[in-house]
Design brief:
Blueprint lengths: L1 E6 L2 E4 L4 E9 L6 E7 L6 E7 L5 E3 L7 E6 L4 E6 L8 E8 L15 E2 L3 E6 L1
Parallel strand pairs: 2-11
Antiparallel strand pairs: 1-3, 3-8, 4-5, 4-9, 5-6, 7-8, 9-10, 9-11
Amino acid sequence: QVQLVESGGGLVQAGDSLRLSCTASGRTVSVPKMGWFRQAPGKDREFVAVITWSGSTTDYADSVQGRFTISRDNTKNTIYLQMNILKPEDTAVYYCAADNSLSWSQRRRANVYDYWGQGTQVTVSS
């Protein structure tokens, strides 16, 4: 089992930055990749970014490419999502997720992830 706890959300203005953190506990050594998803009211949960255990490979949704950066510190069992130039459309609950599988082709699909955090609210005002 892996437990995930997110933090760092809040209310900011458009153009501001935020950094989200997700700390994992439990059997974290076996998790090949971890990612961030978000869900806005009335919308489906959508992929934001993903990173492999080594940190050598990342992927981003087109909507955040160039503005968001995913990273990890394995000494702290923590991944981060640095969000810059935030827009009102970035407003959502952000979830951290961990996937036990080795598949990279499925990395953007929420239903393949095995563990989820409770989510942290990010609100961007215009």
